[in-house]
Amino acid sequence: MNRWLNRSVTLVLTALIGWGLWSVLHWLLLAADWRVVVSNLPLYVVGSYPVDQRWRPLLWMVALVVLIGFTLLGPRRGPLQRWLPLIWLAMAPLGLWLVAGGLVLEPVSTRDWGGFTLTLLLTFGSGLLALPIGVLLALGRRSRLPVLRLSSTAYIELMRAVPLIAVLFFGQLLIPLFLPPGLEINRVLRAVLAFAFFAAAYIAEDVRGGLQAIPPMQREAAAVLGLSEWQSLQLVVLPQALRIALPSLTNQAVGLLQNTSLMAILGLVELLGISRSLLANPVFIGRFLEVYLWLAAVYWLACTAMALLARHLELRLDPLRSDR
Amino acid sequence: MTVAIRATDLVKSYTPGSRALDGVSLEVASGEVLVVMGPSGSGKSTLIRTFNGLEKLDGGELDVLGVRLDAAHEERPVREIRRRVGMVFQQFNLFPHLSILDNITLAPVKVQKRPKAQAEQRAIELLDQMGIREQAHKFPAQLSGGQQQRVAIARALALDPEVMLFDEPTSALDPERVKEVLDAMRQLARDGMTMVVVTHELGFAREVADRVMFMDQGQVVETSDPASFFTNAREERSRRFLSQMV
Amino acid sequence: MRRRSLLLQVGVAALLLALLALLVNNLAVNLLRTGLGLDFGWLGRPSGFALAESALPYSPSDSYLWALTIGWLNSLKVIAAGLVLATLLGVAAGAARSSSNRLLRSLAGGYVAVIRQVPLLLQLLFWYFVAFLGLPETPIGGLIQLSNQGISMLGMPLSVEFCAVLTGLTVFTGASIAEIVRGGVNAVPRGQWEAFRSLGLSEGLGLRRIVLPQALPAILPALTSQYLNLAKNSTLAIAVGYADLYAVSDTTITQTGRAIEGFLLLLISFLLLNLLISGGMAGINATVLGRMRRSR
Ligand SMILES: Nc1ncnc2c1ncn2[C@@H]1O[C@H](COP(=O)(O)OP(=O)(O)OP(=O)(O)O)[C@@H](O)[C@H]1O
Ligand SMILES: [Mg+2]
To answer: Which residue's C-alpha comes closest to atom 14 of ligand 1?
Structure first.
C-alpha cells in the first residue's frame, strides 16, 4: 500500500475509534444503569428454580468450570487424563439428574428450569444425542444398500433445507402428533429432540467429509489383517474420520450453543428468554443495551471456551503432537 | 513337498473386453520363495491380491493352504485365508492414529483374541527382529519409509502367517532405505517362510528366489530358476524386459 | 454374498417402513382424535390479519395464500439485499484482514472474533431495539432521512424492522464471508505473490489476475453455503416483527391449526428458495470460472 494512503487510513481509523471509545465511555459513566443485570444475577443463572434447591444447578456449573480448568491446565498425564473423555460424557446425565431431581433429590418441574442452566442443558443434551444419529446418517449415506443410502440422503438434505426456527416450532407442534396418544413429553425434551434431529443432519455431512478423506487402502490393510468390516469401521476408519471432522464438529457445537437462544422465540426461558421477560418488567424498561451487552459477554465467553476446549482436544488427539 | 498355493486358469477382468489376468496357473510349494516380475500393468498386483481375496475372480480356481476360492466363493473362506496369509503393500498402509505397538497388536488382540500383554511381548520381539525396537511407542508419521515398511512386515508377521505376500515393498523407498527392508525379507526367507514377492530388485531375486515368474499382459510368460532366468531367459519378451532393467 | 445383501436390504426397508407406518398411524389417530384431516381448502379463505409491510397490495380480506405470497416476497427482498451487502462487507473485511495497515487488520480481526461468537438472534434484537428504535430524527443531506419510524432513502421508505433484519444478517454473514475470503486467499501459495511481484506487476493487478483466479474455486462453494445460511437465518426476522415468510406461516398456523400443511408449504417454499440461490450461484460459478480461463 502507498505510504500516504496507509497514513490517512490510520488517521481516519484512529479518529473513528476515538469517537467510538468516547461515546462508550460517555454512556458507561452517565447513562448506563447495571441494576437490571446485577440485581437479577440468580435469574440469569438458574431461572426461577426453587431457591432452596439452587445449589444443584450451581454445583453442576462449578463442576463444569473445574473440569474445563482441569482439561486445559491440568497435568498432561496421569490416571485422571485417561478418564477425561468419559467424565465429559458423564456431565450431561449428571446435569440432568441434578437439575431434574429424582433418586434422592427432590424432583423439579421443567417449568422452573431456566437461565444459563437451561441453555447448557439444551446444548449438552441435544449435542450428545445428535452425534450418534449424525454418525449413523453419514454411514447410511455411504452405504452400499440403496434403501439406506436414499433415505439417509433424503433426510439430510431435507433437514438442511429448512430453517432451524421452523424445525423447533414444528417440533413443538408435531412431535406430539407422531406419538401414540397418552404418551406425552414435555417442552424441554421436545426442544432437545428437535435440536438433535436438526443438528444430526449437519453433523452427518461433517462426518461424511471425514470418512471420504480416509484412503481406501486403510480399509484394505484392515481387511488383510483379518478384521471384519465392523471392526475395521470401529477401530480404523471411524477414529480417523472423527478426528478429521473435529474442527467442523466444533463449529457445529458452538453453533448449537448459540442456537439454543432461538428457544426464546418459542417461549422457553433460557438465557435469552429470561432476559426478554426481564425487559418486559416496567422497572427495567428500556435497559436493552445493558442486558444485551451482558448476554453478549456471556455467550462470547461460553463459545470461546468451547472453541478453546476443542482446539485443545485436537492437539491432544494429534498423534504427532501429543507427548506420549 | 506340500503345496501352499495352487492357481488354475485364473481370469480377472476389470473392464469388459480386457483381462488383467488371462489364464494364469501356478504352484507355490510351502517354504518356497517365488519372485514375480513383469512390466507395469502386466497384472502382478492383481494376481497376488487374488491370493487373499482382495480381488474377486471372474474365472479359474484357487487353493490357498487348502482353502478353495473361485468366482462364486462365500465371505467365510476369505476371512480364514486372511488370518493365515500376511500381506505387505507398496504404500505401507500403517494406521496413522495408532502407535507402532498398537498397529502390530491390533489384529492379534481383536481377531485372534490373544491376551494383550502376550501380544505386546510378541510385537516387541518382532520389532527387535526388524531392528526397530526403539520405535515401539512412536507413531507412523514419525518414522522413515524404511522403518514404516519394516513395521508393516512385523504387523503381518504378528498373526503368525503361513504365507507372506509382498507387493513391491521397496518401490516407495529411497534407495538407501531399500536395503534395510530387503535384509528383513531375506532373513524371513532364510527362516523358511513361504513368500510370493512382486519386486524389481534383481539382486534380491537372484539371491533369495527359488523361482522367478515373468508376466506380461495378464499371462505367465515363463517360470525359471533365477540363475537361468537372469543369464539365459528362454523367452524373447523376458530378455527384452531384463535388458531394459540394467 | 449377493443374497445376503438383498436380504439385508429388504430387512432395512421393512424396518424403515414399519417405523414410518407407526408414525403415520399415530398421526392418523391423533388427527382423527382432534378432528383435523389433511386439507388445503383453508388457503383460499380470508386471512383476517394485517401485514405491516407488503410489496404488492394486500388487505386482511385477502386469502391466506396471498398473505403467504406476500411473506415470501418480503423474505426475498431482505435476502437479496442481504446477499449483496454481506458479500461487500465480507470481501472488504477479508481483504482488510490481510492488509498491511496494522490498525485496519486488527479492527477486522476483532469484528470477526466478536460477531461469530455471539448468537445472531441477540444481534438482531440489538439492532432493532437499541440501534434503530433508538435513532434520533436526523436528516442527512436531505436525501437520506433517519428516524425511529424508519429510514427513507431518496424518497424510498424502509421500515425499521426491515433495516434491523438486513443489518443483522449483513453483519453476521459478513464475518463468515470474511473468513472464507481470507482462507481462500491464504491457500494460494506465497510463491505466487512473489512471482507476480518479481514480474513487476502491481499489487492490484496481481491480486486480480493471479491470486483471485486461483482462490475463487475454493471460495465460491463455501460462499454458496453461506448464502443458503443467510436465507435460512432470515426467518429470525419474526423476533423483531418483520413479516417474512416464516412469520406469516407462524400466524397462519396459529390461526388455522394447520401445522402439517403449514410445514409442508414452508418446506416447499424453502426448497424453492434454496434452488434459486444454488442455481444462481452455479451460474455465477460457471461464468466467472469460464471468463477467467478465457482471459488468462
Ligand atoms: N481397480 C482397477 N480398476 C480397473 N482396472 C484396473 C484396476 N486395477 C488394475 N487395473 C488394470 O489391470 C491391469 C493390471 O494391473 P496391475 O495393477 O495388476 O498391474 P501391475 O503389474 O501390478 O503393474 P505395476 O507394476 O504398475 O504395479 C492394468 O491394465 C490396470 O490398468
Ligand atoms: Mg502393481
So the answer is: B43
Residues of A whose CB is below 8 A from C75: none
CATH number of the domain within which C286 lies: 1.10.3720.10
Report residue A266 as a C-alpha cell.
Answer: 418459542
Domain that holds residue C226: 46-295
Question: Following DSSP, what letter does each residue of A153-182 receive, concatenated?
Answer: HHHHHHHHHS-HHHHHHHHHHHHHHHSPTT
What subunits touch chain C, counting only 3 or more CB pairs under 8 A?
Answer: A, B
Relative orientation angle of helices B145-157 and B100-110, to the nearest 10 degrees: 20
**Tens place of pLDDT for every residue, chain A, 324 residues?**
577 888 888 888 889 989 989 988 888 888 777 888 778 888 888 888 888 888 888 989 899 888 888 888 877 666 777 777 788 888 888 888 888 887 887 787 778 888 898 999 899 889 989 999 999 999 999 888 888 889 899 999 989 989 999 999 888 887 777 777 777 778 888 889 999 999 999 999 999 999 999 999 999 999 999 898 889 999 999 999 998 888 889 889 999 999 999 998 888 888 888 888 888 888 888 888 888 999 999 999 999 988 888 888 777 777 665 443
Amino acid identity at C43:
L
Q: Which residues of B touch C8 (CB under 8 A)?
A: none
- Asked, for residue C225, whether it belongs to a domain, the answer is yes
- Give distance in angstroms: CA of A218 to centre of ligand 1: 19
Which residue in A224, A236, A238 has the most chain B C-beta atoms within 10 A of its own C-beta, making it the best mutation to test that interface?
A224
Give residue A122's Cα distance to chain centre: 8
CB–CB of A299/C117 below 8 Å? yes
Gap from CA of B61 to ligand 1 centroid (Å): 20
User: Facing residues of B100 across strands?
Assistant: none
ipTM value, please give it.
Answer: 0.88
* Three cell numbers written together for B102: 498398537
Q: How far apart are CA C57 and CA C270, in angstroms?
A: 23
Which pTM does this prediction carry? 0.86
Q: Which atom of ligand 1 is nearest to the CA of B44?
A: 21
Confirm whether C262 is domain-assigned.
yes
For residue B216, what is the enclosing H or E element? Answer: strand B211-216
**Helix/strand/coil for C49:** coil
Considering only CB atoms, B106 lies closest to which of A235, A240, A320, namely: A235
Q: Given an 8 Å threshold on Cβ–Cβ distance, is B107 in contact with A226?
A: yes
Which pLDDT tens digit goes with each residue over C12-22?
778 888 888 88
Residues of B in contact with C1 (CB under 8 A): 74-75
Q: Which residues pair with B6 in a beta bridge?
A: B27, B63
For residue B43, how far is its CA from the centre of ligand 1 (angstroms)?
6
Domain ranges of chain A: 32-130+160-191+250-316
Pocket test for ligand 1, best of B46, B170, B219 (most atoms within 8 A of CB): B46
Nearest CA to ligand 1 atom 16: B43
Q: Check CB contact under 8 Å for A265 and C16.
A: no
- C150: in domain: yes
When divided into structural domains, chain C yields a total of 1
- Interface check A216 vs B, CB under 8 A: no
